């Protein structure tokens, strides 16, 4: 009897949320602090280098506040000045193409319209390290099966220890319920109870589209604590096996930046503060000082790091689920097929309303039954672009 | 009810004594105090009066009586006071508040007369005492008459030394801190931890009064013929307190010189409801003012605004580096093995050092020398069993205790996704050996082991543990001199094992070892001066980080930081100086010296630049055991007490401390995988000074305590770090270090009711703890170099611990706790960087998480009170956080799919009911 009592007590506890209940809450600005945000990475690529300027904005706000009409230039230790001009709000491109070279220092100078001047520390280009290969493996990570994209770098010089990665993924989308025909109604009477149906060929093929995403998270690694003076088997991107992106064909391009220790540390602190890595223990958050300073007020908080890094770009790696003998992943959206006839007045009315106003698309017709489907499944341009990227290889 | 009986008895007795009452006296008092009047009355009437001097107020009386009965005279002069009297034959006993009964419970004393020499014929040989002896014997038959010593007819000595041991008659354990008093001669002594006392007594009849809280007050008539032994046993009489006279001597809080000391009543805590049924002595300590934690799941304790690494936690003299299991939810101290817990938060005795804020001195209890016994409990998470047994009766005994989690089912059964793959388990074990070699030599050895293992994700396992060992030899040279020699060693280590699916598997370990040799001696020079002195030396050996690849495929480079070695030594002396009846000084002086030792490399930095890897101008190489740098300094430990009235005292203290070892942490709360580092060429020791003052008052025969204390503390060279600093495997910690200055101040209030059906305490503290991280270099400033709230700054803290004993079997308890929320750094804006939302944080600790409050309730049901039974048992049913308040523990912000999300987490956000079964035999 006593034992049963204890057991009951135990069960009672277990059924409740016990240790560290976590719940999201809406961020509300208690007080707002305005600061300039500088996103500037110049590389060894010969191109119009790009610098983005924005400002902090309220926690509740959706809209980024951009810094426009600023005067932006980079000065190097060879007394070259590269001026920038604003191509769209907050985005500044260098007037001419240039590339960063080793042994030369670069300094970013910004004057904003409110009359404030900002400058960066002088930065040098780290040596370039090439990508050896980008490859995939089928793995199980925390109980979830997926395709892991990994990177190996070539061996670099001793000064190239800090790596930051970006990737650009592209994938083909094929609408699962595509019909080359559209349904067109005419002679509509009685609010859509009776009508004539015509089938017209679609003006263009909207069955195949392409999605392109850029990485948004900060991906870093260092070869400092590694036995080899290079990056090996670095897990860059994990795609679960049921991810729709590998349903047709998936391609990934990897950019490998070699950074200075300071730039790496800046990105690392930024990343760590935004990652809940541990249980019950919280990192001390705070302002992450970059290398940009106000010339008028050294205490003014300026966000961002003027990063001069060398970049290597991989070949695009393509694969899909069949390469790993997996089941086909589901489509991006659930397709709701609606089968309707025109004999029944209610059905006929639904068909008209759904196609005309509900945005559903015609899929097939047989034996007096019309099958219509949600637009995302019949027309991939509903959510993606049908323009085939220049780089795409089938 | 009891009081009624007492009164009734008193009434009866008054009737019996009516004949004496009628004795008539002629006397007059002219502007004399009551005390003087009593003395005069004693003179005139021939009655002997018994009373305590400090009962009387300084009011003066002028009266005169003509052939009046003594009873009427006393009625008259005591009318305005709260003093009762009782006339027994030729003696008059005055009592304060209470009425008196003449019968003590049967076998209240089980005394024996151990000195049998010539006992039989003492009467014949000592005609001097004949009258007194007869008087004593006839006067009050329930007070036993004892004799001590052998009379030497030719001796001219008038004073003799009476000494002996006082033991509990049931357990035969020595009784410590028992006061032996010869009231009319103003002679007193206190038993030491061996139950031993020694007292200088005048020849002839003496009345020894013995008092302590648990053994009540009693008196013995002793006829002293010469020096000799007087050992006897006492029976514990907690429940008889109401019947037995009168006042307890548990008035240490008023009496002692030391300021800011907290004692945890280890036995008393069983009635306090605690989460998951774990009795936890340190958690109870946090309900006292000035001792806090960062939250329910936080490791360590913050004492008077100090950080968690500033407490010297001693477990039988060995340093316990991590006093917590399971992220601080359980303490690592086995409650059944614990004898006493003393927390010094204001004045720290000179014998202790090496930490800034406090000393938490935990002693295990002495193993039962009498018989086999044990104690255990069964709770939902852990089971605990502690056994004690004598090996050689009254000489050698051992105690062993084990506490462990049953399994990690708790975490396994949690539905929350983030911890589903988690597991956690822990155990701790203690072994103790007690050996009484003879009256003057005693050895005690303690071993302790704790281990925790947890994993949060499926690929990593964290483990940590303490390992302690100590041996102590107590030696009495003579009545005035005794010493203890202590050898204690301690180890703390943790380990992170990572086994993922890629080639980055590793095994990372850290360990700190220390071994200390310490000699403490006590010299009771005189009643006025009691000295304590000694020296200690401690050798540290730290493995600050060892990274090893795991498996052949791993590309992780094995890396091992250079070992750290250091020697911390100190000499100390203190004098407990009783200047007069009212003023007591405790003057302590400690000189500590730390030497960082090689073999190591140390960087030397350009002083004109912020310390960084770029500003290294030289690297010095030190060979093995070469002194890298020494630090040291005097540490004054002064405290004083002044009696304003006998139950009201004022105390003041000044305390200086130096800390040479530091916990490295970039977290807002401590973690079990934070490492300790010694001071070296670039890391200076932390230093603190504290001023404290307090007012203490006891009421109603010390059953109520009230105190108010204030303190101001200044700290230097506190260790803080740059945002996002990397501490793991960092060879040059100084490059990310921000040395800080701190100040803490506060007022602490405590009211305590120690006796009665309803007991408990209420504490409130207002305290602040501020830190300043300033530097001439902008990059090393936090909040522009101004003072800001430290992470442990929680200004308001209210605790109520209450217990109501309904019957002997049932008692109910209620806890309440309120605390200001801890400071946090909150976003003041967001921005997009690298395509991802990020937040801009406010100045550090500018905001607070919401206030914390919690109610707990509990019921204790004692087993039946049959006389013959196998074990004494009780059930404890408690509900923690009965209101189910969701107290946020932390607030944090994470990036999810490029967007910033805010989360708040809490530890025990719902009522936690628990049933535990406890037994004792």
The residue fraction in helices of chain A comes out at 10-25%
Instruction: Report the count of strand segments of chain A.
Output: 26
Number of domains of chain B: 3
User: C-alpha Rg of chain A, in Å?
Assistant: 28 Å
Number of helices of chain B: 9
Biggest beta-sheet profile of chain B:
22 strands, antiparallel, barrel
| Biggest sheet overview of chain A | 17 strands, mixed
Oligomeric state = heterodimer
What does this structure look like?
The complex is a heterodimer of chains A (394) and B (921). By secondary structure, chain A is mainly beta. Chain A folds into 3 domains: 36-124, Immunoglobulin-like (Sandwich), CATH 2.60.40; 131-174 and 210-274 and 310-324, Immunoglobulin-like, CATH 2.60.40; 181-208 and 332-382, no CATH class. Chain A has helices spanning 2-14, 261-273, 345-356, 375-378, and strands at 21-25, 36-43, 50-55, 65-66, 71-76, 81-88, 91-94, 105-111, 117-120, 123-124, 131-141, 144-153, 162-174, 181-189, 194-201, 208-214, 219-222, 234-240, 249-259, 292-294, 302-303, 306-313, 317-319, 337-341, 361-366, 369-373. Chain A has a 17-stranded mixed sheet that branches. A 3-stranded antiparallel sheet of chain A has the order 11-12-18, with no helix packed on it. The N and C termini of chain A lie far apart (71 Å). Mean pLDDT of chain A is 87; it is low at 1-18. Chain B folds into 3 domains: 2-96, Phage tail protein beta-alpha-beta fold; 109-249, Immunoglobulin-like, CATH 2.60.40; 261-920, TonB-dependent receptor, beta-barrel domain (Maltoporin, Chain A, Beta Barrel). The longest helix of chain B is centred in the first third of the chain and has 15 residues, at 2-16. The two termini of chain B are 32 Å apart. Chain B is mainly β and 921 residues long. Chain B is 7% helix and 53% strand. In chain B, a hairpin with a 2-residue loop joins strand 19 and strand 20. Strand 1 of chain A pairs antiparallel with strand 57 of chain B, so a sheet runs across the interface.
């Amino acid at each position: 009897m006593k034992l049963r009592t204890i057991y009951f007590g135990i069960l009672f506890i277990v059924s409740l949320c016990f240790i560290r209940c976590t719940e999201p809450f809406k961020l509300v600005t208690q007080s707002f602090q305005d600061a300039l945000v500088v996103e500037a990475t110049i590389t060894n690529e010969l191109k119009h280098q790009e610098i983005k300027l924005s400002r902090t904005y309220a926690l509740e706000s959706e809209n980024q506040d951009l810094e426009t009409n600023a005067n932006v230039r980079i000065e190097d230790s060879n007394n070259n000045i590269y001026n920038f001009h604003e191509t769209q709000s907050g985005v500044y491109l260098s007037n001419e193409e240039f590339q960063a070279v080793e042994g030369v220092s670069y300094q970013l100078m910004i004057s904003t319209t409110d009359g404030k001047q900002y400058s960066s520390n002088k930065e040098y280009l780290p040596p370039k390290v090439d990508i050896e290969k980008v490859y995939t493996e089928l793995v199980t990570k925390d109980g979830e099966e997926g395709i892991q994209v990994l990177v190996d770098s070539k061996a670099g010089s001793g000064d190239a220890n800090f790596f930051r990665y970006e990737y650009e993924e592209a994938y083909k989308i094929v609408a699962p319920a595509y019909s080359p025909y559209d349904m067109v109604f005419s002679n509509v009477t009685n609010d859509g109870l009776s009508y004539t149906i015509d089938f017209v060929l679609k003006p263009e093929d909207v069955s195949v589209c392409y999605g392109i995403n850029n990485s948004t998270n900060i991906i870093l690694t260092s070869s400092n604590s590694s036995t080899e003076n290079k990056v090996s088997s670095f897990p860059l991107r994990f795609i679960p096996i049921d991810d729709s992106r590998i349903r047709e064909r998936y391609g990934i391009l990897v950019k490998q930046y070699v950074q200075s220790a300071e730039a790496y540390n800046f990105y690392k602190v930024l990343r760590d503060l935004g990652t809940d890595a541990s249980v019950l223990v919280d990192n001390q958050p705070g302002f992450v000082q970059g290398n940009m300073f106000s010339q008028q007020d050294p205490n003014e908080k300026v966000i961002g790091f003027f990063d001069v890094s060398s970049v290597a770009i991989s070949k695009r790696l393509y694969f899909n689920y069949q390469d790993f003998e997996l089941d086909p992943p589901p489509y991006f959206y659930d397709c709701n097929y609606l089968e309707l006839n025109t004999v029944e007045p209610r059905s006929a009315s639904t068909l008209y309303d759904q196609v005309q106003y509900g945005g559903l698309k015609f899929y097939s017709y047989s034996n007096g039954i019309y099958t219509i489907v949600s637009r995302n499944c019949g027309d991939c341009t509903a959510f993606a672009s049908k323009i085939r990227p220049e780089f795409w290889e089938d | 009810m009891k009081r009624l009986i007492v009164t009734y008895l008193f009434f009866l007795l008054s009737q019996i004594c009516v004949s004496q009452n009628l004795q008539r006296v002629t006397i007059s008092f002219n502007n004399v105090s009551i005390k003087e009047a009593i003395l005069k009355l004693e003179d005139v009437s021939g009655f002997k009066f018994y009373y305590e001097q400090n009962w009387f107020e300084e009011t003066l009386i002028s009266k005169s009586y003509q052939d009046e009965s003594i009873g009427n005279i006393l009625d008259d002069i005591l009318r305005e006071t709260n003093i009762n009297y009782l006339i027994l034959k030729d003696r008059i006993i005055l009592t304060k508040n209470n009425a008196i009964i003449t019968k003590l419970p049967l076998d209240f004393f089980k005394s024996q007369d151990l000195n049998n020499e010539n006992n039989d014929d003492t009467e014949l040989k000592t005609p001097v005492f004949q009258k007194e002896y007869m008087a004593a014997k006839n006067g009050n038959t329930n007070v036993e008459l004892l004799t001590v010593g052998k009379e030497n007819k030719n001796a001219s000595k008038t004073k003799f030394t009476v000494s002996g041991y006082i033991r509990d008659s049931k357990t035969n354990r020595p009784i410590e801190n028992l006061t032996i008093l010869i009231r009319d001669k103003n002679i007193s002594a206190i038993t030491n931890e061996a139950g031993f006392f020694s007292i200088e007594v005048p020849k002839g009849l003496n009345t020894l009064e013995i008092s302590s809280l648990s053994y009540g007050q009693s008196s013995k008539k002793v006829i002293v013929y010469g020096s000799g032994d007087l050992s006897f046993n006492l029976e514990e009489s907690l429940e008889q307190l109401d019947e037995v006279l009168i006042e307890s001597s548990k008035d240490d809080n008023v009496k002692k010189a030391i300021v800011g000391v907290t004692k945890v009543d280890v036995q008393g805590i069983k009635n306090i409801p605690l989460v998951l049924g774990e009795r936890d002595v340190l958690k109870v300590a946090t309900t006292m003012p000035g001792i806090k934690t960062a939250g329910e799941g936080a490791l360590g304790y913050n004492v008077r605004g100090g950080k968690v690494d500033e407490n010297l936690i001693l477990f039988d003299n060995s340093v316990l580096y991590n006093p917590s299991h399971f992220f601080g939810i359980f303490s690592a101290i086995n409650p059944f093995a614990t004898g006493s817990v003393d927390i010094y938060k204001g004045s720290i005795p000179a014998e202790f050092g090496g930490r800034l804020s406090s000393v938490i001195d935990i002693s295990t209890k002495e193993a039962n020398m009498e018989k086999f016994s044990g104690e255990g409990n069964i709770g939902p998470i852990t089971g605990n069993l502690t056994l004690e047994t004598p090996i050689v009766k009254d000489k050698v005994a051992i105690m062993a205790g084990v506490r462990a989690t049953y399994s990690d089912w708790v975490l396994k059964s949690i539905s929350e996704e983030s911890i589903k793959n988690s597991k956690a388990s822990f155990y701790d074990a203690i072994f103790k050996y007690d050996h009484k070699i003879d009256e003057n030599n005693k050895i005690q050895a303690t071993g302790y082991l704790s281990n925790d293992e947890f994993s949060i994700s499926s690929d990593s396992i964290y483990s940590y543990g303490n390992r302690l060992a100590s041996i102590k030899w107590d030696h009495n040279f003579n009545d005035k001199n005794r010493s203890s020699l202590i050898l204690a060693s301690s180890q703390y280590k943790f380990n992170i094992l990572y086994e993922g699916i890629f080639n980055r598997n590793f095994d990372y370990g850290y360990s700190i070892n220390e071994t200390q040799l310490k000699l403490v001696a006590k010299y009771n020079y005189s009643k006025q001066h009691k000295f304590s002195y000694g020296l200690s030396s401690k050798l540290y050996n730290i493995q600050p980080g060892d990274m090893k690849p795991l498996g052949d495929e791993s590309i992780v480079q094995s890396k091992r930081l250079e070992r750290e070695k250091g020697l911390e030594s100190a000499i100390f002396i203190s004098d407990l100086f009783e200047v007069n009846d009212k003023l007591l000084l405790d003057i302590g002086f400690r000189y500590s010296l730390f030497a960082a030792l090689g073999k190591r490399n140390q960087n030397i930095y350009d002083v004109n630049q912020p310390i960084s890897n770029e500003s290294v101008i030289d690297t010095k190489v030190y060979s093995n055991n070469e002194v890298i740098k020494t630090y040291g300094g005097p540490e004054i430990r002064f405290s004083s007490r002044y009696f304003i009235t006998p139950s009201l005292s004022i105390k003041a203290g000044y305390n200086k401390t130096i800390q040479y070892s530091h916990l490295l942490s970039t977290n807002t709360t401590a973690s079990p995988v934070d490492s300790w580092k010694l001071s070296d060429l670039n890391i200076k020791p932390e230093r603190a000074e504290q001023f404290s003052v307090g007012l203490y008052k006891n009421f109603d025969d010390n059953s109520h305590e009230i105190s108010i204390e204030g303190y101001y503390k200044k700290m230097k060279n506190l260790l803080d770090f740059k945002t996002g600093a990397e501490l793991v495997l960092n060879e040059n910690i100084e490059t990310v270090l921000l040395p800080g200055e701190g100040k803490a101040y506060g007022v602490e209030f405590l009211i305590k009711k120690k006796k009665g059906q309803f007991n408990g305490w209420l504490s409130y503290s207002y305290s602040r703890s501020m830190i300043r991280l300033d530097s001439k270099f902008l990059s090393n400033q936090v909040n522009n170099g101004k003072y800001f709230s430290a992470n442990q700054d929680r200004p308001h803290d209210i605790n109520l611990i209450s217990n109501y004993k309904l019957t002997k079997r049932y008692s109910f308890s209620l806890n309440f706790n309120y605390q200001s929320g801890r400071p946090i750094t909150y976003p003041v804006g967001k921005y997009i960087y690298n395509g991802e939302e990020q937040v801009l944080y406010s100045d550090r600790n500018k905001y607070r998480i919401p206030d914390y409050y919690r109610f707990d309730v509990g019921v204790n049901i004692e087993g039946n009170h049959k006389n013959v039974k196998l074990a004494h048992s009780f059930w404890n049913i408690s509900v923690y956080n009965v209101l189910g308040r969701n107290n946020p523990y932390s607030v944090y912000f994470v990036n999810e799919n490029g967007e910033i999300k805010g989360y708040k987490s809490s530890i025990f956000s719902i009522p936690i009911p628990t049933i535990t079964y406890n037994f004792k035999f």
